Every structure is written in structure tokens, then in C-alpha cells.
Design the sequence.
């Protein structure tokens, strides 16, 4: 009964406009956690997709007990790598020219890989590019890769229209610095350099 009587007042309160200052604080707080998680996720690709892997992403990596990288990849993994590079550019973690260089290297590798009637096989060794047994074509993986190619094409068209140093640059650097503070926060030798980086990043004197 009390809730029913209070319903009109509650409805008006929910419909009230949120002050711009409060909305801005909410947006900053809401974005902090997913952005830092995105930056940590990008590090997986940034560290492991390189010349040693023929610019192909590994399927997974084990960090517990000992570091071990699974040197195999699939069409889905390759598609996720390409779209992750695009997302890293969108978030300010990767410059446009570096994204283009890395994706171009991957596309050059794809041109050298064995296919069946135009389809990539399901698993490849990232070091030798040899298909792994049993050899088969997965229509699901082929569809995933095709969708990622389409996203990459549309994204590159947008990247070409944006400035080389845009609004995403500072937030991207801020995410990286925030993670550095988390990791090295108790290292007293890092306190002064991190503080100076914060001042430089936020324009403080």
C-alpha cells in the first residue's frame, strides 16, 4: 500500500533530468573499469602477435605455473585479432599507421596460407603456417572471419577520416598510465615518474 501511494512521486523523481555534472561523473566512473579491461586485453595481442608468429594470433596463453603460448590459430582467432587492432585504434591504444602496418602484415600471411576452395582450414601452426590435423573447413569460423573482414573494412574507412592525433589519444594514454599505477603502485622508485606522467597527461603544473 505504501509503495502504491508513493508511486507518483517516485515516477516524477525517475523522470527528472540528471544534472550535467552528475552525468559526466557517472560516465567517467562507468567507463573506467571496461576501458582498463580493454587495455589489458589489448596487451595480449600487442605482446604475442608479431613477426615470430607470422603476425597471426595464438589461440591462448597460459600464465599460471609457467608462461606457455599455444602456437596455433584459427579463422575466428585471426578475425578477432584484426577487429581488436581496429578497436585498439578506436580507444587510443594503437596509432592508425601502426594498425595499418600490423594488419597489412597479417593479410600478407593469409595470402600464403593453404586453403580449400577459398576457405581457410580450421587450425594452423603459427610458426610454420602448416594446417594442423585433422584438416577440415568450419563454416562457423569462415563466417566469423568474413564478418570481421567486413567490420575491418568499415572501420578503416572511418579511420581514414579521423585526425592522426585525435580525441582518443589522451584517454588511451590515461588508461595505460592507470594500469601502470596499479601494477607499480607500491614500488617507491616509480612514484615520482608516475606522478610526473600524470601531471604531463592532465596538464597540471
Sequence:
Amino acid at each position: 500500500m505504501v509503495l502504491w501511494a508513493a508511486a507518483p512521486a517516485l515516477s516524477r523523481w525517475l523522470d527528472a533530468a540528471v544534472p550535467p555534472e552528475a552525468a559526466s561523473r557517472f560516465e567517467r566512473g562507468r567507463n573506467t573499469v571496461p576501458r582498463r579491461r580493454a587495455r589489458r586485453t589489448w596487451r595480449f595481442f600487442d605482446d604475442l602477435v608479431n613477426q615470430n608468429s607470422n603476425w597471426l594470433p595464438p589461440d591462448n596463453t597460459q600464465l599460471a605455473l609457467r608462461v606457455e603460448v599455444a602456437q596455433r590459430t584459427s579463422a575466428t582467432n585471426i578475425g578477432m585479432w584484426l577487429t581488436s587492432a581496429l578497436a585498439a585504434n578506436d580507444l587510443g591504444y594503437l596509432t592508425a599507421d601502426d594498425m595499418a602496418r600490423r594488419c597489412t602484415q597479417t593479410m600478407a600471411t593469409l595470402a600464403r596460407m593453404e586453403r580449400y576452395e577459398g576457405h581457410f582450414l580450421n587450425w594452423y601452426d603459427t610458426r610454420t603456417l602448416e594446417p594442423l590435423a585433422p584438416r577440415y573447413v568450419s563454416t562457423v569460423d569462415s563466417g566469423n572471419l568474413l564478418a570481421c573482414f567486413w567490420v575491418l573494412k568499415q572501420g578503416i574507412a572511418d579511420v581514414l577520416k579521423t585526425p592522426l592525433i585525435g580525441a582518443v589519444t589522451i584517454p588511451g594514454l590515461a588508461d595505460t598510465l592507470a594500469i601502470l599505477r596499479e601494477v607499480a603502485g607500491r614500488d617507491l622508485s616509480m612514484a615520482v615518474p608516475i606522478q610526473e606522467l600524470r601531471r604531463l597527461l592532465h596538464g597540471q603544473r
Summary: Residues 22-27 have pLDDT under 50 and may be disordered.
